[in-house]
Design goal:
Its EC number is 1.1.1.195. By secondary structure, the protein is of the alpha/beta class. The protein has two domains: 232 residues, Quinone Oxidoreductase, Chain A, domain 1; 132 residues, 3-Layer(aba) Sandwich (Rossmann fold), CATH 3.40.50.720. 24% of the residues lie in helices and 29% in strands. The chain has 13 helices and 21 strands. The strands form five sheets. Strands 3, 4, 5, 8, 9, 19 and 20 form a seven-stranded mixed sheet that branches. Strand 10, helix 6 and strand 11 form a beta-alpha-beta unit. Helix 5 packs across helix 11. The longest helix is centred in the C-terminal third of the chain and has 14 residues. It is globular and about 65 Å long.
């Protein structure tokens, strides 16, 4: 129905809302099924995007299952959105119909605080997430497992021509999540030694950015079976098995920084021992339980290993020695000044910068493209870490078929 002369602005806006369909979780079972939704009408500063691809982030799995106890149902996840502009509001200057664009983890902020003014919208107290959040108009945000989205132009980035949309979509979360701390903690300097803890969706991208920056990159993993892939497929310079005491000892005090992508609770003290004095460990993984950090691990590191006196052999022993009745104990000391920090995605300016640099150096995510009908199976596989390294949903070619008979919110 066309708006009448007496219709209010709110009524006119409602009359011009856009119908869409998505894959939604209705409860903490996390099962995703088709759901008809509406998107807001196109505002003067908005960009309307036809979604072509959307990556599946591990946080999507946590969210749909309410692992973080903040779920708002129905929930349509997805914050690694790649698509094409179909419409632009009258005040939009950066985009036009046909442009290749992306949307990451946030779709709005207050746009006026100190953080926003400096380009760090990700630090804004009023930041609004792409899904499972309440937008400024009071509506629930729905993510990229859907046919289209309407977003303020400030929170849209342009895909460089050299960047494929499917392999580039995960960079809008995984890419900026590792790029931002590398930039702001000085772990982007050629010749420096970067450790990447964990070789999953975040870790494999961190390796690629480390190499793009000209760094020496060592992957630290509890899985020896990932060594060949890390070295030969991803281009890492070295591989350390975190459960191998000898390999950990050999790598002590060699790394300028570590990007910690692991979401499990693991012993932290041995990892700090890998850092040089003044080294930094940046947390981008989110363990469900609090981590334990012995204060001594930040101040100094010590590694002891007994050498038997009963072998009758001569030993070339480095380091400080302590003699007992049956053993000489090697005690390796290194000074501390270690830093433990955290990082949460990045601002919009940095996200665009990251995409441009990735395109220049050929950095993309390693993906498995799936259809919308496969998404629940993909979530089961993701829970088992059975993906190398990111699922990406082919929204444009498969969602309509999967959503032939959706439920409705109306």
């Amino acid at each position: 129905m066309a708006p009448t002369a007496t219709a209010t602005a709110a009524e006119q806006s409602q009359q011009h809302t856009k119908k869409a369909v998505g894959l939604a979780a209705l409860d903490a079972s996390g099962h995703l099924s088709p759901l008809a939704i509406t998107r807001r009408s196109t505002g003067d500063d908005d960009v309307v995007i036809k979604i072509l691809y959307c990556g599946i982030c591990h946080s999507d799995l946590h969210s749909i299952k309410n692992d973080w106890k903040n779920a708002k149902y129905p929930m349509i996840p997805g914050h690694e959105i790649a698509g094409e502009v179909t419409e632009a509001g009258k005040n939009v200057t950066k985009f036009k119909a046909g442009d290749r664009v992306g949307v990451g983890c946030m779709v709005n902020s207050c746009q006026s605080c100190e953080s926003c003014d400096k380009g760090f919208e990700n630090h804004c107290p009023g930041m609004i997430f792409t899904y499972n959040s309440v937008d400024r108009d009071g509506t629930l945000t729905y993510g990229g497992y859907s046919s289209m989205v309407v977003v303020h132009e400030r929170f849209v980035v342009r895909f460089p021509d050299a960047m494929p949309l499917d392999k580039g979509a995960p960079l809008l979360c995984a890419g900026i999540t590792v790029y931002s701390p590398m930039k702001y903690h000085g772990l982007n300097v050629p010749g420096m030694h970067l450790g990447v803890l964990g070789l999953g969706g975040l870790g494999h991208v961190a390796v690629k950015f480390g190499k793009a920056f000209g760094m020496k990159v060592t992957v630290i993993s509890s899985s020896p079976g990932k060594k060949q892939e890390a070295l030969e497929r991803l281009g890492a310079d070295a591989f350390v098995v975190s459960k191998d005491a000898d390999e950990m000892k050999a790598a002590m005090s060699t790394m300028d920084g570590i990007i910690n992508t692991v979401s499990a609770n693991i012993p932290m003290a041995p990892l700090f021992g890998l850092l040089k004095p003044n080294g930094k460990m940046i947390m981008v993984g989110l363990p469900e339980k609090p981590i334990e950090v012995p204060p001594f691990a930040l101040v100094a590191s010590k590694f002891t290993s007994p050498i038997s006196l009963a072998t009758g052999r001569n030993h070339a022993i480095a380091g400080i020695l302590r003699v007992t009745d049956t053993h000489i104990v090697r005690v390796a000391e290194c000074t501390g000044n270690k830093t433990l920090a955290g990082s949460c995605i990045g601002g919009m300016r940095d996200t665009q910068e990251m995409l441009d640099l990735a395109a220049k150096h050929g950095v993309t995510a390693d993906i498995e493209v799936i259809g919308a009908e496969y998404v629940n199976t993909a979530m089961e596989r993701l829970a088992k870490a059975d993906v190398r390294y990111r699922f990406v949903i082919d929204i444009a070619n498969t969602l309509d078929k999967a959503a032939a008979a959706p439920a409705t919110t109306e």
